[in-house]
Design a protein that fits this description.
The protein is mostly helical and 314 residues long. The chain has a three-stranded antiparallel sheet with strand order 1-2-3, with helices on one face. Helix 6 runs antiparallel to helix 8 and helix 10 packs antiparallel against helix 11.
Length: 314
């Protein structure tokens, strides 16, 4: 009786992608996995998936950085686990064979003088298309700097999310965070209330708080473009080529932690409050703001390291 030929890697990858998508995964790595399958069918047709084959494909791009190569191997590793259920000869590559597939890039931390400079520049933005344009970016950037909320959360704010009487701001639920209400400094309340009044006077339609020149909700792409113009001459103190709106979040969190670490009494509970304020589901996400700049936050790192280990263990 003739034995059936094993399915091609291309067919197996297509089955794997369909299986993962049924589970709700978007599978953004689909094209890379299909490329690996064609490579495997060409280099080792009819043979099981091996670690050597996976490494050969992962390192085939000579110009790829170590993180990229490790990431490519990680994609194959997930596919290999799937193949192992059909073929026991399948080898699953070690997860750290080419190093970690993802490493955080140290963020830029704004100085107080840099924040003041950026805010001054927003007031000089052109107002010919809309008199609200300079005030929109001054208020938006000021809000990011003093609250540390995500840029996307700020752009999704509605006018009704500000409770000026209570001095609070509602941050709506997003993919990474539950809905939360944060307290605002009185100066932030005044700035947001003033902007909301001007926005309603000029564009009385729509629910979005921050709007563009035509009264439509401000887009992330347009915001990033304007911010780049405001900061293009700033030299980052990070590993990135330019500063980002998200760096206000890192600056806010790192500044609070650094300030608390200099207090003599235990302040571990402040980190839990900070995690809640930032919308983190777990404390491990907040720990990144301590570990991202260990030289500037050495005192905080030493003080909170044990607290982090206890939270991670629980």
């Amino acid at each position: 009786m003739a034995t059936l030929a094993p399915p091609s890697k291309l067919n197996l990858v297509r089955q794997y992608l369909a299986f993962r998508r049924k589970l709700g995964y978007r599978m953004r790595s689909a094209e890379l996995l299909l490329d690996f399958a064609r490579f495997a069918d060409r280099e080792a047709p009819g043979k099981p998936l091996t670690t050597a084959l996976a490494i050969q494909w992962a390192t085939a791009v000579a110009s790829a950085c170590p993180n990229t190569r490790a990431g490519r191997l990680g994609m194959v590793r997930g596919f290999a686990r799937y193949c192992a259920s059909f073929d026991l000869r399948t080898q699953i590559p070690d997860p750290y064979l080419l190093g970690p597939g993802f490493q955080r890039v140290r963020p830029h931390l704004f100085t107080s003088s840099q924040i003041r400079l950026i805010l001054r520049r927003t007031r000089r933005l052109e107002s010919c298309r809309s008199p609200l344009h300079p005030l929109t970016y001054e208020t938006l950037i000021g809000l990011l700097a003093c609250t540390g909320i995500r840029p996307g959360e700020a752009l999704r704010l509605r006018g009704c999310d500000l409770d000026a009487d209570q001095g609070t701001l509602r941050i709506r639920r997003c993919k990474f965070s539950p809905e939360r209400v944060i307290a605002l400094h009185p100066t932030a309340v005044r700035a947001l209330r003033h902007y909301r009044q001007r926005r309603q006077a000029l564009f009385p339609w729509g629910e979005a708080l921050f709007v563009g020149a035509t009264g439509r909700p401000l887009s992330a792409r347009r915001t990033a473009k304007v911010f780049h113009r405001l900061t293009r001459d700033l030299v980052p103190n990070s590993e990135r080529q330019s500063v980002r709106l998200m760096d206000f979040r890192h600056t806010f969190a790192s500044g609070r932690i650094s300030q608390w670490s200099r207090q003599s009494k235990p302040v571990a509970h402040h980190l839990l409050l900070l995690a809640r304020h930032l919308g983190h589901r777990t404390f491990n996400s907040t720990w990144w703001y301590v570990s991202s700049d260990p030289m500037a936050l050495r005192a905080a790192s030493d003080r909170f390291r044990q607290f982090h280990k206890q939270c991670h263990a629980s």
